[in-house]
């Protein structure tokens, strides 16, 4: 880069340098096109204006300016009141309209704050009735605007004292650094809390605005700084803290929808984690049920139907007629080199047209029962004194051929397959509305396995009701295990969605259980 000579001494400003730059560079430019480009760039009027503004501000800053007045907002109000009493011409109307705009009022308010250098909140005077003998008592004042304090309290079961149960990451209490887990709360705004329930104290805090004064006895236990790295999870279910009777403080809860990405801020509490939505500018975390707690609640939830080992004759075991078998068949024949299915085991005698290892793997009843005892079956059941089942080895056999194993199982079986070895992607085929079922299945028939002939019978209204009810129960109890839900409203549309989903599995990244990473 050649040295630039301006001939104006050290007083030459940035604007003059910018104007002179193209002429200074002309001898060093090879083509007319480059020279034209430089003239266009450095001759841009908007750039000149910005540089002029920069120089004016830089010069003004050197003068150490002080505000002319500190009450611009009040002066503007006085002016508006004075103008109201004048004959309203167009100029006065325009000025009044301008002074009434919220952004102008806010600008004047900020100006006054900066002029007065009054950036701290106004706190009330310290109370005069502090007992000097209480060396361990701390008086803390926090300014609570419209956000929660970000702390929960509980009553100590042994001492009956009100103590801080948790501090929400990023909340007002956390940012202050003055309140800690285990601190004993004595007073809130001068109101003793020893004889109050936590719910009553929360109500006092909820109704308080501005500065809140706490009298606390600090906890003797020192908190160790958290060394947790960033952790993100994908929500597997919808959650509304207002509907959760177990949450210690509904106001501190964080609501989310299935599929939301949450950043876990703290796992200090084994029951209630602290989290916030990914990308949320609000630093305050909220309470969500921990993974262990939510799984325990699901396990203890009384099922609406009794789910038993697969019973071939049981039409209540899954929503028959939803189109699952047809979708699986279409996907299989779309690429037989890429997709495969398992061969089930059975103890019934082989029929003349059947081949061992093709339709079924035929084994003895004793061997089947032995394999059941050794947990070698994913699912099994009994029909007319014969066993039927899908073995784990049959899945492995498909995977060994480097194929995707298409497997339809009872929903309660899914959790046993969610392992690093199988890495399943679980798709729930859901029936459409009952009106749509009546429309699309009115001429269809259902194959009943309750007799030897496997006769096809028309769908009944009870069949439609059963399909809807079964699907609702499955989604309610096992929806957190489903990676995707496809509504089979139209078979062709559902198949295209299914095929697209499987194709994306080959290229796109997907969320997986964290346990797979540590297996």
Commentary on this structure:
The protein has helices at residues 14-25, 32-42, 45-62, 72-84, 90-99, 102-116, 172-176, 198-207, 291-300, 324-334, 365-373, 392-400, 411-417, 434-440, 461-478, 491-505, and strands at 138-144, 151-155, 162-167, 184-188, 191-192, 210-217, 231-234, 261-266, 272-277, 286-289, 339-341, 345-346, 361-362, 377-383, 386-391, 404-406, 427-430, 445-447, 456-458, 484-487. The longest helix has 18 residues, at 45-62. By secondary structure, it is α+β, with helices and mostly antiparallel strands. Helices cover 35% and strands 17% of the residues. Helix 1 (14-25) packs antiparallel against helix 2 (32-42), helix 1 packs antiparallel against helix 3 and helix 10 packs across helix 16. A hairpin with a 6-residue loop joins strand 2 (151-155) and strand 3.
List keywords for this structure.
alpha+beta, disordered N terminus, 16 helices, 519 residues, 35% helix, six-stranded antiparallel β-sheet
Short précis:
The protein has 519 residues and is α+β, with helices and mostly antiparallel strands. It contains 16 helices and 20 strands.
Note the topology:
Elements: H1 14-25, H2 32-42, H3 45-62, H4 72-84, H5 90-99, H6 102-116, E1 138-144, E2 151-155, E3 162-167, H7 172-176, E4 184-188, E5 191-192, H8 198-207, E6 210-217, E7 231-234, E8 261-266, E9 272-277, E10 286-289, H9 291-300, H10 324-334, E11 339-341, E12 345-346, E13 361-362, H11 365-373, E14 377-383, E15 386-391, H12 392-400, E16 404-406, H13 411-417, E17 427-430, H14 434-440, E18 445-447, E19 456-458, H15 461-478, E20 484-487, H16 491-505
Parallel strand pairs: 11-16, 12-13, 17-20
Antiparallel strand pairs: 1-6, 2-3, 3-4, 4-5, 4-6, 7-8, 8-9, 9-10, 12-15, 14-15, 18-19
Helix pairs in contact: 1-2, 1-3, 4-5, 10-16
């Amino acid at each position: 880069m050649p040295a630039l000579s301006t001939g104006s001494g050290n007083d030459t400003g940035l604007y003059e340098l910018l104007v002179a730059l193209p002429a200074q560079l002309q001898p060093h430019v090879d083509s007319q096109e480059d020279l034209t480009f430089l003239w266009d760039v450095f001759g841009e009027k908007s750039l000149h204006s910005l540089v002029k503004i920069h120089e004016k501000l830089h010069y003004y800053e050197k003068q150490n300016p002080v505000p002319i007045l500190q009450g611009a907002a009040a002066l503007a109000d006085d002016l508006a009141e004075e103008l109201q009493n004048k004959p309203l011409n167009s100029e006065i109307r325009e000025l009044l309209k301008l002074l009434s705009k919220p952004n102008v009022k806010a600008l004047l308010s900020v100006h006054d704050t900066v002029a007065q250098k009054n950036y701290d909140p106004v706190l009330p005077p310290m109370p005069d009735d502090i007992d000097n003998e209480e060396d361990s008592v701390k008086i803390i004042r926090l300014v609570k605007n419209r956000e929660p304090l970000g702390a929960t309290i509980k009553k100590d079961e042994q001492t009956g004292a009100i103590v801080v149960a948790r501090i929400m990451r990023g909340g007002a209490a956390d940012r202050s650094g003055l309140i800690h887990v285990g601190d004993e709360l004595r007073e809130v705004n001068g109101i003793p809390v020893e004889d109050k329930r936590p719910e009553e104290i929360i109500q006092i805090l909820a109704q308080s605005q501005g500065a809140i004064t706490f009298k606390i006895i600090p906890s003797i236990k020192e908190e160790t700084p958290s060394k947790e790295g960033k952790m993100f999870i994908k929500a597997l279910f919808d959650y509304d803290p207002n509907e959760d009777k177990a949450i210690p403080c509904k106001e501190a809860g964080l609501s989310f929808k299935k599929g939301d990405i949450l950043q876990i801020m703290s796992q200090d509490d084994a029951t209630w984690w602290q989290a916030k939505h990914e990308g949320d500018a609000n630093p305050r975390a909220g309470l969500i049920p921990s993974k262990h707690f939510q799984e325990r609640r699901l396990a203890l939830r009384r099922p609406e139907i009794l789910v038993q080992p697969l019973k071939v004759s049981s039409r209540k075991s899954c929503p028959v007629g939803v189109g699952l078998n047809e979708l699986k068949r279409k996907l299989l024949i779309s690429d037989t080199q890429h997709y495969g299915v398992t061969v089930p085991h059975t103890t019934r005698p082989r029929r003349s047209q059947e081949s061992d290892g093709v339709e079924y793997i035929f084994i003895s009843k004793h061997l089947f029962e032995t394999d059941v005892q050794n947990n070698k079956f994913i699912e099994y059941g009994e029909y007319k004194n014969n066993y039927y089942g899908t073995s784990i080895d049959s899945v492995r056999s498909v995977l060994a051929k480097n194929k995707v194993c298409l497997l339809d199982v009872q929903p309660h079986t899914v959790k046993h397959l969610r392992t690093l070895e199988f890495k399943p992607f679980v798709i729930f085929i859901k029936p459409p509305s009952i009106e749509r079922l009546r429309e699309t299945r009115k001429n269809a028939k259902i194959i009943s396995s309750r007799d030897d002939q496997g006769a096809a019978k028309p769908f009944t209204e009870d069949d439609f009701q059963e399909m809807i009810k079964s699907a609702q129960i499955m989604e309610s109890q096992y929806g957190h295990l489903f990676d995707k839900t496809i509504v089979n409203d139209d078979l062709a549309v559902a198949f295209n969605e299914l095929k697209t989903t499987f194709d994306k599995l080959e290229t796109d990244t997907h969320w997986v259980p964290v346990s797979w990473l540590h297996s």
